Amino acid sequence: MSCANQPDGQGDEAVVMPRRKRVYQREKGVCQRCRTNKCLYIVRSVTMCRVLTSSGCFESAVRVSVVKSLHPPLLPADARSAQPFPRPTGANVLLALSAGAGSSALADLVHERYVGRDGEVRDTTRGQREAVWERGWAVHVDFSAVTGLPSREGLLRAFAEERGLRFVCVRAEDSFDPLLSRRVAALGGGTEEGSDDAEAVAVRLDEPDLPLLSTPSSSTATPLESLQALLTSLPPPSRPALLAHILDGLLGVVAHALPNISHLLVGETSTREAQRVIAGTATGRGWALPLELASSAPLPRAGRTVTRIKVMKNVSLKEAAIWCHGRRVETYNERRWDGTGGGARRDARGKGATASIEALTERFIAGLNVSHPSTVTTINKTGDKLCFVGEADGPLCPVCQLPVDASAIDWKARSALTSLPGKGDGVAAAPSADPLAPLLCYACLTMFTPLTAAQKDRPTAEPVPLPLWVGARVQERRHVPPSELRDQVAQFLIDDDDE
Ligand SMILES: [Zn+2]
Ligand SMILES: [Zn+2]
């Protein structure tokens, strides 16, 4: 029955899957790479010897994986095949640290050879290479205020400073702090980025077209209160998606506020990447998913361009964890984004635990990875085949800052059971109706939509504040020539809109 029973190349039923390398019985205790040392780990069906020395098989395998994703975006287009060492960029680099194994291994791997230190002179005549980046910054986004986990700021500060990286810690609630970019710029010794403060906006989630309101400047809510208000008013399964956008948004703000940053390195492992493929597809992120998965992509923001590189894209969480264990680096992989926002509402069956698609996928992949070790690779290979078919410079979704699909509302109107603009009675627009819904991508529109159309699930009429970049993004979208914008949204416009 299985293809393995057929002789190779027989007729058109040729076996196309490469056969898996077997670990032969007689080699079982020996490293398959050097064939001398005793093996300790099995990584992707290959046995490897212990870490400890820099020429160890495991260590060199990880380094090769890192070079494969780190070098190509740093090399000129015509040099990609040769894999030379990248030339100095003359700029600085920002590393995202989460305290997880992926980002900790990334910082540990990259800091020595690629990032310069203050006052350090490299002797290139003795075979030392010039650092690719003049200085390294590390940023940590602290979610402890909403997740209830202990803050890892102190641990990461010590970890980063030991490796010659300057450390910045921002909190999730800083996404509502209009002074954030100025504060971060001041840390870097700069003073710019003052013009960033677009008007802070709030949204009414009870209306299907999500009208935007400007937040009164007299509002006394602290950033943390604003974040909690937004989280609480979203359906519980939507909250992890919002936190993921807040993470990306804050990394973008910090990357632009610090001086002369050319690259943002993130430690997303292949395991996390596989979760992104499955959860992203399930939550309706399919349109921009190829851009999310790309190993290098520009951060969406006007002005200076920063490129985000997923350095650990070819390294699994297991490998990263082994690396950190070998280097005695303390790591914490738990995010606990489920059940944030205070008092998760109980569902109809009285169960309190909220399971978001993100959390379910994480558990599913972790479980499957034990019994079927090639799961992650297979999912990622499928994800890598996805191509983005839209225009790269098309309009961006104000919330997730990725290109929007052309017909999110239209599509939802045909497929969803919840109330929508043009349906039902809830569209009596205020005089200054400024709907957010037509600007959103499908996934973000879903994120703001109540789970059911039942009255008890409807959010309160109280407007809730949105992260600070949403207002700026909405303004940017408004600057699109009106005729073009009207064409884009013509079919979604509400009749009594006087714009
Ligand atoms: Zn070996
Ligand atoms: Zn979006």
From TrEMBL:
Q: What is its main location?
A: cytoplasm
**GO MF annotation terms:** nucleotidyltransferase activity; sulfurtransferase activity; tRNA binding
Q: So, what pathway does this thing act in? A: tRNA modification; 5-methoxycarbonylmethyl-2-thiouridine-tRNA biosynthesis
| Gene3D superfamilies given in the database record | HUPs
- Which Gene Ontology cellular component annotation is one that this UniProt entry carries? cytosol
**Alphabetized UniProt keyword annotations:** Cytoplasm, tRNA processing
Q: Where is the signal peptide?
A: none
- Kindly give the Pfam families that the UniProt entry links to this protein: CTU2 (PF10288)
Please state where this protein is localized: Cytoplasm
HAMAP family, per the entry = CTU2
Role noted for this protein: Plays a central role in 2-thiolation of mcm(5)S(2)U at tRNA wobble positions of tRNA(Lys), tRNA(Glu) and tRNA(Gln). May act by forming a heterodimer with NCS6 that ligates sulfur from thiocarboxylated URM1 onto the uridine of tRNAs at wobble position. Prior mcm(5) tRNA modification by the elongator complex is required for 2-thiolation. May also be involved in protein urmylation.
Q: Which family does it belong to?
A: Belongs to the CTU2/NCS2 family.
What is the name listed in the Swiss-Prot or TrEMBL entry for this protein?
Cytoplasmic tRNA 2-thiolation protein 2
Which species is listed as the source? Vanrija pseudolonga
**What lineage is on file?**
Eukaryota, Fungi, Dikarya, Basidiomycota, Agaricomycotina
